Every structure is written in structure tokens, then in C-alpha cells.
Amino acid sequence: MTPLQFESLYEADWKRLEDMVQQCLARGRRGAARAPAVQGEQLAILYRRACEQLALARQRAYPPYLVERLERVTGDAHQLIYQRRQFGAAAFREFIARGFPRTVRQHRYYVLAASLLFLVPTLVLGVLIHQRPDLVLSVMDANTADMFEQMYSGDGESLGRRRDVNSDWAMFGYYIRNNVGVSFQCFAGGLFLGLGSIFYLVFNGAQAGAVAGYLTERGLGDTFYSFVVTHASFELTAIVLSGAAGLRLGNALLAPRRLTRRASLVKAAVEVAPMVYGFALMLLIAAAIEGFWSSATWLPGVVRYSVAAACWAGVLSYFIWQGRRAD
Amino acid sequence: MRRGALDTLIEAETPEGISLELRPAGLPARFFAFLLDWAIRIAVIVAAAQISALMGGIGTAVWIISLFVLEWLYPVAFELGRAGATPGKSAMGLRVVMDSGLPVTPAASLTRNLLRVADFLPLMYGFGIISMLLRKDFKRLGDLVAGTMVVHRPRAVARASLPEVEAVAPAIGIGLTEQAAIVALASRASRMTGERLDELAALAAPVVGQPGDSGAVVTRRVLGVARWLMGQRK
Q1: Residue B83 placed within a domain
Q2: Is residue B116 domain-shared with residue B188, that is, in the same domain?
Q3: Exposed end of chain A (fewer CB within 10 Å): N or C?
């Protein structure tokens, strides 16, 4: 069969397949309403035929324009047909009920390591700076220390805020950007043999400890702790989890076992993905709490501390017990 | 035809038993795509700033949140769409696929975009650029981990028109690769100078028989053979 015979024989099929692919792409662009629906079954049949014809065309060394046309149309159809839709309410429920806490438990040693990397510097610097406040200047400059002191002192109107941003919503946005930045650094730093994660965990732990120690020493402990303790349940946990995810990547590089380093890294990324979704979600919750709840200083301390205790208990028991039953 | 030896072509086999040819996109194409996306984001941010200035306190929040969304979710949202690419990449004819040639999954898209942080280090996407320049498939670190690739979308190829000459049956039996080479030469004929065409056609002279002929005569006959091979035998 000559190329021209081949082409004229199947031209109609290819044209239809190309039109269908175009139609699907157009539907994606302009919303489902405008373009008519595409018959999935027809698309699949035409696609499979085009695949056979492409194989034939290659085998018979037909001219490049013919082969490339077939490559193009099968490639586009392949992308459409195998598109995976993983989101949706059911998938999300499954993720919250089982996927996320199970992934965290699977990585419990990484989580433990990340917790220690974060908490030990926090405690050490907290205690140290509480004893010798001038040491705070070795962690941050005088202006920053001053800013923190201002944020947690005085009228309570601008508690925990930079003075220039002045509304709950604005702070919500600011917290998201800030915390997400920290967490993503902790995660991505894992690519450098885990050293980046370790650095960011220790660094942020030290910062937190320094601020806490310094403010406690200044007698602002109560305002500070009552402000941060609630959202810390989500925020610090999320930062630790992001660090744990980063450490997992680092370990995959350092100790790939029987895989190549690259394969090991890809495997680790797939396994750790639910944790990444999870900590991003937790950061969102933390920012919401921080923006809208933590600033409500008019509530009596006992209410605020009990809500904080409930949050901590909730978060911890979620990771310890949620999704253990297999059903 | 073995093209893999010189080319950066990557083959991925589909369940249908054909191999998709993926052409990884190099640094320049991705750089311009990034610039375009960056310009789009800047435009949106400026517009959002104008709007939020009118809305007061909540406006600031909207602005900061939109900064966040643009920074982190802009690529993810577009990569998971039908085009499989951000507007910048689409404009440059690129798309993001898995190593297997499949459309990018949500987890992979999120991973590759969160790891931008690592690619960006130490500054101006330094590690990302080094990684892309060192690898044959031009992956940045995020692509390596997520198992994704940025590839050129296959371009539409114009239907080749062969020069109008009289069809000639080949004088000797020729194999498939030789046939393909002759047809390919004929479809490129209009883009070459006459001298170069003669030179190349002379290589195929045995196909037309009649030793002793040379130059334009041989070329004409070789082009005629191409026509015959394509099936235009009248």
C-alpha cells in the first residue's frame, strides 16, 4: 500500500479524532455548556485505531509528515484519555479520614526526628535567653527584638501584629504567606541531602525559642502564650511535618537501598505526598485561627487556654488514633 | 531510523503498544515561558492591588492571599487543566507530563511546584538551571523528584507537497529506509537550492538506473521516484 492510499483510506477517521480532541480541549477552556459532549467510547475506538495505524506507518517507513501527524493526534488523545481526576469530595474525605494520619504514622521516625530538631533549639534558646536576655541579640537584631516586644505589649488592640497591618483578614493573609514560606523551605530543603530541612527546622526553632524566652523575661509571657498557644497546635505541627517530609526526601537520597538514587527519590516523593497536602491544609487552618481567634483578647484567659488545650489534644489524637481501623 | 543517538528524544510506551516520542524542552524555551508567566502574575498582582486599595482592610487581605495563591497555586492549577501547562508554557508550545508521557497527576504537580524553593537556591533558580543544563532530559530538581518532564507539544506538520514531475518507477528494488529517505528528500526539495538538491539526489542515482546521466536529469528522476513511491503514479 502506498502512503497516499493509506492516507486516503483512513483520512476520515483521523479527521474525526482530531476534531474530537479539539472539541474536548475547547470544552475545557470555555466551560462544559457551549460545546457538545464528546462520545467517550467513539474517542477510545478511534484512538486505538490511530495507534495501530501509527505503528503500521512507522514500520513501513511512511513519509515523516504522515507519521508526525499520527504521532500528534495519538499524543493529544493519549493525554486526554489518561487524564486522572483524583480530586472530589470522596477522595478528600478518604484523605482526611485515613490517608493523612496514616502517612504521618508511617513516617513516625521522621516526624520524631523533625520534632526534636525543632523543639530542642526552642527549649535551649528559650531557657538561655530567659536567663540572659542580652543573648537575644545573637539570634536577631535589636530592631526585630524591639518589634516583637511592641507586638505583645500595651493595649492589646494590635496584639501579635505588625503595626502597619490592621485587620483580622489582613493578618490572616500575612500569616499564610509567612508560615507557608517557612514550611515549604523545610520541605524543599530536604533535596539537599536533608541538610536544608535540618537547617530550617533548627533555625526556626531557635527563633521561636528566642522570642518566647525574651518576652517571658520581659514579663509579657502571659499575653504572648495566650496568643500563640492555640494556633501553635496546627502551625508548629505543620512545620514539623514539612520538615519530616523533607527529611524523608533527604534520606531517600542518602540511603537509596536497592534503588537508584533517582528512583528512590521519586518513590519517597510519592509516599510523602499526602503529608504535603496535609501540612499545607494545616497551615491554612493555623492562619485562620491566628487571624481570627487568637486576636480575640477580650475573651477570658481560661476560655482561651481551654480551647488551646482542646486543639492540641485534637491534633495529637488525630495523628495517633485516626484511621487505624481498616474498613 | 535511529534518532535517539543524537537527539534528546525520549520514548515512552503506551498501553496501546505505540511509543510516544517526547521532546524535552530546554532552558531557553522554559525561560521565556517563565518570563511570560511572571509578567502575567505581575499584571494580576498590580490589578489586585488597585482593586484591594478600594476595599480597605479586607482588601489588604485579599491582596496578600492573592499573592500567596499566585505564588504557589498558579502553576499547579494550570498544569492540572486540560492544556497541562501554564499560559506561559502553552504560549511556548510546552506542556508538563509524567515520565511515562501520561498527564501530570495532582501530587506530582504539587511536588514539582513546591520544590521550586530548592530550584531557586542559591539565587535566581541557580540549582534548577544547573540541573537542567547537566541533564539530557532538562529536568530541574522539582521535576526529578516528581517524576515529571516539560516537553514540546508536537507541532502540526504541513502536508508535504512533492514537486510536480513525471512519476518514475525505481529501477532497482529498494528497502524501506531508502524509500523514506527519497520521499523525505523530495518533500524538502522546495526548501533547498538547486545545487544542493542535485548533490543530494546524486547520492540516490543508482535508483534511477541510466548511468551516465548527471545533474538536473538525475534530480528530476529521483523526484519522480519519490512521487511513484508516494503513490502518485499517473
Answers
A1: yes
A2: no
A3: C
B110 with B207, same domain: the answer is no
Q: What is the pLDDT of residues A176-231, one digit of tens each?
A: 777 778 888 899 899 899 999 999 999 999 988 888 888 888 888 777 888 888 88
Mean pLDDT of the region B39-52: 87
Write the residue in B116, B160, B232 that is nearest to A65 by C-beta: B160
> Is residue B101 domain-shared with residue B214, that is, in the same domain?
no
Residue range B165-222, pLDDT digits in tens = 877 888 888 888 888 888 888 888 888 888 888 888 888 888 877 776 677 888 888 8
CA B142 – CA B149 distance, rounded (Å): 10
CA A77 – CA A48 distance, rounded (Å): 10
pTM for this structure?
A: 0.76
Do B189 and B146 lie in a common domain?
Answer: no
Domain membership flag for residue B162: no
Helix (H) or strand (E) holding B94: strand B94-98
Percent of chain A with pLDDT over 90: 25
| Radius of gyration for the alpha carbons in chain B, expressed in angstroms and rounded | 26
Closest residue, chain B, to A64 (C-alpha): B184
What's the DSSP call for residue B214?
-
Give whole-number Cα distances, A288 to A72, A96, A173, in Å.
Answer: 47, 19, 9
Whether B109 and B193 map to the same domain: the answer is: no
- Same domain for B203 and B145: no
Question: Cβ contact (<8 Å) for B65 and A270?
Answer: no
Task: Choose among A2, A74, A172: nearest Cβ to B230.
Answer: A2
Residue range B133-151: average pLDDT? 89
CA distance A235 to A312: 11
Q: Can you give the residue range of the structural domain that contains B138?
A: 10-152
Query: B182 and B223: one domain?
Result: yes
